[in-house]
Amino acid sequence: MIADALRFIRFSHTIFALPFALGSMAVAAGGFPGWRICALILLAMVCARTAAMVFNRLADWEIDRRNPRTAGRHRLLPKPAAIVLLAVSSTGFVGTTRFINPLCFWLSPMAIGIVFLYSLTKRFTHFSHFFLGLALSVAPVGAWLAVRGHFDLAPLALALAVLLWVAGFDIIYATQDREFDRAEGLHSLVVKMGVARSLVVAAALHWLMLAGLAAFGWLAALGGVYFGSLALVAVALIFEQRSARSLDVRGINRAFFQSNAFVSVVFVAAVFLDVALRPR
Q1: Residue 133: other Cβ atoms inside 10 A
Q2: CATH H-level, domain 2-276: superfamily
Q3: Predicted TM-score of the model (pTM)
Q4: If you placed Cys at 202, which of 65, 154, 168, 231 could pair as Cys (CB 3.0 to 4.6 Å)?
Q5: Residue ranges per domain, the chain?
Q6: Residue 130 contacts residue 189 (beta carbons within 8 Å)
Q7: CA of 234: how far to CAs of 146, 172, 202, in Å?
Q8: 130-142 pLDDT, tens per residue?
Q9: SS3 letters for 111-136?
């Protein structure tokens, strides 16, 4: 049951957003902020992402049943159990922020609303990929606010980088469902522009994402370790884009997970190492 629930919410994909939150946390704290705030950030992240994924599954329940690629999702968890999980994770997120600071608590309903919004956007806009990016971009801003309690330019630059990165890889992922989405009247850039032109847009977004990561490094006063790691990020993005051009579903899925997981891990490792090597 637990394994099915984890598959239902694609728990393994938590590795995409979590490292950006942890990197933002480390920069905001100038190192490790302490076990209490770190645990609260992790708990808030897990609750928010679980709520977002369950909401997505419930919103798309009938659509997923008609899509051959996703037809088995609804069998992993009964709908009543999914509704309970949504209520528990949403409440858990808001409740966790209460123990972080007042600003995070008062912004928590807005944050949960943003992560829910994505699931509805493909019904009315071709730019749904950017709303998914917006949903994941909340993570680094929230982690920064958890540590410092106020906004700064650095986490906003990182949030923009995450938004562009996620929008780019979601466009690539959407190439698998082009014909289904078109038949169902669903929206995406792939439906609007075709596969070839959409992949060009995805590549452009990924290069802009690199610029956003560089801007974050500059605003956060990071050093050579961090900026050197951006070359590895670029290689991973090129690999993902080349795999997408093959239009092989298995290749796209493999590149999607491996490349994006690599980008996330390289980013957080570089940030922590760079912060640790700063002169005290």
Answers
A1: 25
A2: UbiA prenyltransferase (1.10.357.140)
A3: 0.93
A4: 168
A5: 2-276
A6: no
A7: 30, 16, 14
A8: 999 999 999 999 9
A9: HHHHHHHHHHHCCCCCCHHHHHHHHH
